[in-house]
Amino acid sequence: MIDLGAQSTRPMASRISPQEELDRLIPVLEAILKMPEMNGKLISVDTFYSEVASEAVSKGAHIINDVSGGQLDPNMTKVVAGLGVPYVAMHMRGDPSTMQSSENLQYDDVCKQVASELYSRVKEAELSGIPSWRIIIDPGLGFSKGTEHNLELLMGLPSIRAEIARKSLSMSHSPVLLGSSRKKFLGETCTRPTASERDPATVASVTAGVLGGANIVRVHNVRDNLDAVKLCDAMLKYKRSPA
User: Which of 18, 61, 63, 126 could form a disulfide with 49 if both were Cys (CB 3.0 to 4.6 A apart)?
Assistant: First the structure.
């Protein structure tokens, strides 16, 4: 799967218009779809605009990845329901320009609160017509989270899934997407200020995530992380239940 995004969602990023996003995205999307190597591969488009989602799917995109979980465009979930494609609902408070504010970083129990807030987004998506089997959940590492929050979420994936399942049986087996690759919290933990230096830490975080129940991982360095995922899959075959 290839994930394409034409709008920056890094902290403090300014929002561009749907038209500007389309002007950036569509030529690249069309070019990638023409590549022989993409035959049989899935393309995900990272956007929080319903207009962009609709146009991207009409051009051949297969999945919509919405970092806002439908909060930044009231039409998003209804549009995606009509498009009939899978929808990634991610947890974030505010928008990229405000998500790291002190107010948005306040948690008493980060795993429980992220699960609860994410469930509310998923419930709205279902009410808009997106069936649960087309929804992928993402706890949003690096989005309205501090370093300690991200580490706690990374190790708390089973509890997040369990909390959502407690509220919705239909979501108990929803795929979990994890996006830890080269994130700032890895750099702060390992003293690696440059993003490209964080690949070893990314592999470690992906390993922890997959062993904790993540089904999809979003990465930059595909080769190294593919090896990590293959090893995790092999190890999980030998996982034993507690005596």
Answer: 18
Which tens digits make up the pLDDT trace of 93-138? 999 999 999 999 999 999 999 999 999 999 999 999 999 999 999 9
Measured CA to CA, the distance from residue 160 to residue 213 in angstroms comes to 10
**pTM above the 0.85 mark?**
yes
Query: Which stretches in the chain have pLDDT values below 70?
Result: 241-243
Question: Of the residues 218, 223, 230, 239, which is catalytic?
Answer: 218
What DSSP state is assigned to residue 213? T
34 flagged as catalytic: no
Q: What are phi and psi of 216, to 5 degrees?
A: -135, 135
- Residue 203 identity: V
Both structure tokens of 64: 């919509």
Amino acid at 169: L
CA nearest neighbour of 142 among 200, 188, 192 = 188
Number of C-beta neighbours around residue 128 at 10 A: 18
Q: From the candidates 183, 192, 223, 230, give the one annotated as an active-site residue.
A: 183
